[in-house]
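Hello, quick one for you while I still have it in my head. My current little project is about how a certain protein chain folds up. You're getting the sequence in one-letter code plus the fold written as tokens. Would you mind checking whether the tokens look sensible for this chain? Here's the protein in full, and shout if anything looks odd to you:
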Amino acid sequence: MDKGMRVLVIDDEPQIRKLLKVSLGAHGYEIDESTTGVDGINRVAAFKPDLLIIDLGLPDMDGKDVVKTIREWSQTPIIVLTARDQEQEKIEALDAGADDYVTKPFSVGELMARMRVSLRRSAATEHEPVITCGGLVVDLVQRRVTVDGREVKLTPTEYELIKILAQHRGRVLTHKQLLKAVWGAAYNEDTHYIRVYIGQLRRKLEENPTQPRYIITESGVGYRLMDH
């Protein structure tokens, strides 16, 4: 585990802060906490955390605005906490620059798994020439994709889509983020493109496209390439 990693929790609920302090502290994380967005933003500069956990429902300002403000000068991984029915909130937080989200009530195990993915991604170089996710291998230099050693022929658009998912493996990407990365900003409302191409990719990459192992649907939000 990432011993000594510093985590800043920005949340006004005392029971959540206590839960995180005790459970993450037991795994060797160093925890600091803030109860407001303004204080949290200031603490980022002072505490220099390795990862941030931000509740979207803060008393003084919108959690999405906290994410946006921090993203202006910091690439520290951010996980947001959301209520179960806040689908649009999740999407806007991810589009604002959050790395991932966990829905309340959450299990500490799930949160820590998300944290490990985010920390691993920030520690890895952005330009790995070969990305491996279980049996799926994406070779960025040769633009070659294999599954369990078998080469898969992809169209240029299919390749761009699996490439962006692989570069952010383990992290959910919104429809808007995928459209912008693959098709350009002008297409950010055309979500049917993504559904069509994800369907094509699953038929080529998955053993059983109806029960995908690799490309997971995050209902109403986007897609995540599982970091096996």
Remarks:
- Helices lie at 14-26, 37-47, 63-71, 87-96, 108-123, 156-167, 175-182, 191-205.
- The chain is about 40% helix and 25% strand.
